[in-house]
Automatic annotation (TrEMBL):
Residue span, Solute-binding protein family 3/N-terminal domain: 36-258
Subcellular localization(s) per the UniProt record: Cell envelope
SMART domains per the UniProt record, alphabetical: PBPb (SM00062)
Protein name as annotated: Polar amino acid transport system substrate-binding protein
Keyword list, A-Z: Signal
Source taxonomy: Bacteria, Pseudomonadati, Pseudomonadota, Alphaproteobacteria, Hyphomicrobiales
Domain of life: Bacteria
Annotated organism of origin: Labrys monachus
UniProt signal peptide: 1-25
Alphabetical list of Pfam families matching this protein: SBP_bac_3
Main location: other
Family under the similarity heading: Belongs to the bacterial solute-binding protein 3 family.
Length: 269
């Protein structure tokens, strides 16, 4: 019994240490010498990344991760993470970089470092030709039903900004698009880049995206705090990948449409 208690106490101490003290991150040279780079991805987030028909990982993040590995001359080791695990995995040195639509924010910047943006995500309106609205605020009426996903932060945002609109909550991105395609809802107001690929399942629907963008977030590659050698390498590589249109072309490959607000490459970091 005493041994079990001591083991439990030791495990608790190790866990507390991982939370309070960041683990030493692998440097750029150590990654190259190891021959692999550990890439955090979310495998439940198509078409960013997911398991395809052959049960192999595929998607935008998988292509980008392999491109980064090739530039380093190593292999990509993809590590599945959930959204909430991306920053803790970096802090605990469980991964070298994090993809998975990691939005750059001041709060996260206290814990990890960010590269220049890899892509954007824009909050805007996805609807059909069955309504002629031109502004997102036009949906503040009880004649419209907005479709959203349970648990999304935007549910509360829209309740606050468009209190008169009716709301239909569903389980995932595919269900959200299906509800609008079937006429059970009028529009989706969200980071709609992530919904557009699902519209391909309904080719008979005339989809519309409004130019009235509400705001745009910038998503970067996350690295451990102070891992400047790796971050500087990625910044140089991202400039090349944006300038050569690799990022935009890969985005269109998986989403079927251009990024709503593409990243403008800059040579200064």
């Amino acid at each position: 019994m005493l041994r079990q208690l001591l083991s439990f106490a030791a495990a608790a101490l190790i866990g507390a240490t991982l939370v309070s003290e960041p683990a030493a991150a692998r440097t750029l040279d150590q990654i190259i010498q190891a021959g692999t780079i550990r890439v955090g991805i979310n495998p439940n987030f198509p078409p960013m990344s997911s398991y395809g028909k052959t049960n192999e990982l595929e998607g935008f993040d998988i292509d980008v991760g392999n491109k980064i590995a090739a530039a380093l001359g190593v292999k990509a080791e993809f590590v599945p993470t959930e959204t909430a695990q991306r920053v803790p995995y970096l802090v605990a040195d469980q991964i070298d970089i994090s993809l998975g639509a990691l939005t750059r924010s001041a709060e996260r910047a206290k814990l990890i470092d960010f590269t220049v943006p890899l892509h954007t995500e824009s909050m805007a309106v996805l609807t059909t030709d069955k309504n002629t609205t031109q502004k997102w605020t036009d949906f503040n009426s009880d004649k419209y039903t907005l479709v959203n996903m349970r648990g999304n932060w935007s549910v509360d945002f829209l309740k606050d900004k468009l209190p008169n609109a009716k709301v239909l909550l569903v389980e995932n991105n595919a269900d959200t698009v299906r509800a609008v395609a079937q006429g059970r809802g009028d529009a989706i107001i969200e980071n709609i880049d992530f919904f557009l690929s699902f519209t391909k399942s309904y080719p008979d629907v005339k989809w519309r995206t409004l130019n009235d963008t509400i705001f745009t977030n910038y998503d970067s590659i996350g690295v451990s705090k102070g891992n400047d050698g790796l971050r500087n390498f990625l910044n140089v590589l991202l400039y090349d990948l944006h300038s050569s249109e690799y990022v935009n072309d890969t985005w269109k490959k998986w989403y079927g449409q251009p990024m709503l607000k593409p990243v403008v490459p800059t040579p200064y970091f």
